[in-house]
From TrEMBL:
Keyword list, A-Z: Membrane, Transmembrane, Transmembrane helix
Transmembrane portions of the chain: 7-32, 44-65
Top-level lineage group: Bacteria
Record's protein name: DUF1232 domain-containing protein
Length: 85
């Protein structure tokens, strides 16, 4: 089962990378880029899929987007909200 899941994730990553490289020269597009507001949603979805496929195989790109910590400044807490009420 793991082999099948790995192959599906690998195939999804390859398809999304090829879609982003635009090997179809703009002929094959799910949503045309000149469509107002929605034109670049397919590229955003392909990018998200590619990043998730890379993270599945251990290539984590998230550390490129983290802020650098300032000395003496504590990390922000993300668990301060009490949702049990």
């Amino acid at each position: 089962m793991k082999l099948i899941r790995d192959l599906v994730v690998l195939g999804s990553g390859i398809v999304s990378a090829l879609y982003l490289l635009n090997v179809g020269f703009g002929i094959v597009e799910f949503i045309p880029d000149n469509t107002p507001i929605f034109g670049n949603l397919d590229e955003a979805a392909a990018t998200a899929l590619l990043i998730n496929c890379l993270a599945y195989f251990g290539v984590d790109l998230g550390h490129f987007f983290k802020r650098k910590e300032e000395p003496g400044k504590p990390e922000p807490k993300t668990h301060d909200i009490d949702v049990s009420k």
